């Protein structure tokens, strides 16, 4: 009996992924543990191992396919002694049965929409929510077969689908066909009636459709850059955070001169390893340690909110926002309150390097109890960060700069850094937030306390 290989869920929150590369081809024999493909999630690229033994009968989803849903069929294995050709045919029926309820639901929502062919196509390569608008029809009156996403992209780009050649099964137009037509400048639809000159642009309303937004701009004055998986997840989580978490903010200024002097001493004392210093501490490494110790000292702030109970964490697992192409990721320093500054520094260098290569494992960036977002190296003086649930706090760190301060009635020059703590007011009240950021300030201004 054919063995179906489906898109795995590489993390608890994963809903879809991109099939970046096949590492096997049809006819290859595989054994449990063999790496067969590379899957890109919104944050990382991960290897997929075979679970069963057999011969690759069919690669259902081509390499490079985007937005493949979790549990969608991606390949078929022929079991030991089974005819490969027959296995490839037999496996086709399985996804059709699995998708039957979904197809019926689509029909119920949009009666005019014809069901896609039952035979397995590129699963989820360009899936999008079913639209209630009628499918396009060619001038000859014949139905134009196109995926929902292809139709939407064509409408946004002003393309006439009847002039686009489809490369999908049975000539179906898919996302890549529309992108090629748009890039070549062909298949342009007749321009819509221009808005009357001098008419003020309508205000952008919440929930406005893509088409309504694009009408606000002059045709040809922009280009459409489709959202990748990372940007979609970031947008979704930020909206959820702002809609569900009541943010509360407290800010303090921290003097850095003592910390900078200690950092210079520690770096100068670093032993050599393979001809290089064993560590090189940054201010951010010391910020991570100071926040972790502050949460240890103020345990009531080291919490997460759930509707039924308060989650009180036993350790300070500090996430650190790292900017990567297309978005950001937050690798986590686990039990940071117990780790030395050198260990934190070396872990962050490793995480930062692998984050930019999208090689982090889900357990290295999921979870955590708090986070640090540092924009000081970009010259930002101060800002307020958005909480990343299930965290209840996030510390926004600004640039250290020379400022005039008053000491004993005299004006002095000191290196000062502004930090802003965002808290989830459901579980960290104003007084508790002030206590936490006060503890942080003490560690930053008396950094020897981080070494004992």
Helix/strand layout:
Elements: E1 3-6, E2 16-22, E3 29-30, E4 35-40, E5 45-49, E6 54-59, E7 65-69, E8 73-78, H1 84-109, H2 148-157, H3 175-184, H4 210-214, H5 229-244, E9 247-255, H6 257-268, E10 272-273, E11 276-277, H7 283-297, E12 303-305, E13 310-312, E14 318-320, E15 322-324, E16 327-329, E17 332-333, H8 341-356, H9 362-365, E18 370-374, E19 393-407, E20 410-424, H10 430-445
Parallel strand pairs: 14-18, 18-19
Antiparallel strand pairs: 1-8, 2-4, 2-7, 3-6, 4-5, 6-8, 9-20, 10-11, 12-13, 14-17, 15-16, 19-20
Helix pairs in contact: 2-3, 7-8, 7-10
TL;DR of this structure?
This protein has 452 residues and is an alpha+beta fold. It has ten helices and 20 strands.
Write up what this structure looks like:
- The chain has 452 residues and is an alpha+beta fold.
- It folds into 3 domains: 3-109, OB fold (Dihydrolipoamide Acetyltransferase, E2P) (Beta Barrel); 126-188 and 208-226, Irregular (Dihydrolipoamide Transferase); 232-450, Chloramphenicol acetyltransferase-like domain (Chloramphenicol Acetyltransferase, 2-Layer Sandwich).
- The protein is 29% helix and 23% strand.
- It contains 10 helices and 20 strands.
- The chain is globular.
